[in-house]
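User: I've been going back and forth on whether these two constructs are worth ordering. Before I decide, could you fold them both?

Assistant: Sure. I'll take them in the order you sent them. The first construct and its structure tokens:
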Amino acid sequence: MAIRGVIFDYGMVLTNAQDPAAHQRLMEITGLGRVVFEEHYWRYRHTYDLGEMNGPAYWRQIAADAGIALTQEQVDELVEQDVLMWATLNEEMVAWAGALQDRGMRTAILSNMGEEMMQYVQQEFAWLQHFTHHTFSCALKIAKPDAAIYAYTCEKMGIAPAEALFIDDRPVNVEAARQAGMQAIQFRGAPQLRLELERQNLLRGWPLPGDEPAHQDRVAADLDGIGTCSTISTLKP
């Protein structure tokens, strides 16, 4: 069955790896070493992504577990730096999504993220408006790899799971998409993705990662301002 929709994960697919400066600042504020910090950071991340706690509650829970004291100002900065850590865009992948959209392909973002990150990307990234649909876990109260979130996204796109291509960096999410009936590829970089698309003969006749976008002006305009986004304190409530 031909692919009629491409579904992108956000973090580590449409974005690059964690911004090291923001990551370092998080550790400095908490005073935790890297190994201990990572253990606490991920312990409640799924709960945060499910929308069962907001950013301040998430960081206060980390502080309680780690036995550290945080001021309100520190909590606010932790929320901000956490969002900025995941906001460095993979311009090649964003441009490829735009090239698909310009040719009429339905596209969606399916991402596990907390409400502060969701608010930030919705406000700061003009290119989101070109996607057919956005599924953010905190708004739906369902997160990958739950099968329901894949079915929901396909329904909102108006396609069958067999007509969807899902791209995610995490193997567990990719396997869940396959179990849901989708074509799915684990993302390790744009060159690898292109080779895999060619190997599987997916998206024949469509632009591939690395191709010249059909409308450079629109892509450039949407990407203008990357790296100069406002901080969390300026976000609308």
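The second construct, handled the same way:
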Amino acid sequence: MIINNKFFHNPQIGKVQGGQPVYRQPASVVKDSEFSQILDEKLQQGRQVKFSKHAEMRLKSRNIKLTEDDRAKLDNAVLKAEKKGVKDSLVLMNNMAFVVNVSNRTVITAVDSNELRENVFTNIDGAVII
């Protein structure tokens, strides 16, 4: 656009050469591969299972320690429940039980093997056993 024989200020347009504006890339352009990698990492972070305050207290009081492998299994179990349309799931893993809100990907409570026997789990609509 020309107003008073000058171009509007646009940082992506350089000087006019031969009557045509010269377009240039902004300095902050991220390469496609870098962008894809960053996007994948951010999406993965959002997909990881979180623990509610209550669940964190239960883990600590019951001396339940989860390894990275356990967390990956828990993430995978929640993904399976999500694919089946489960809203609140019981996940049984390594003599432990977790009640998980699938849509929020949040563990609501955790039970160890000592308290697993004769326990009744309510408000769930699916179970995943790993």
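Notes on the second construct follow. The chain has two domains: 2-43, 49-129. Strands lie at 2-3, 6-7, 13-17, 20-23, 50-51, 88-93, 96-101, 106-111, 126-129.
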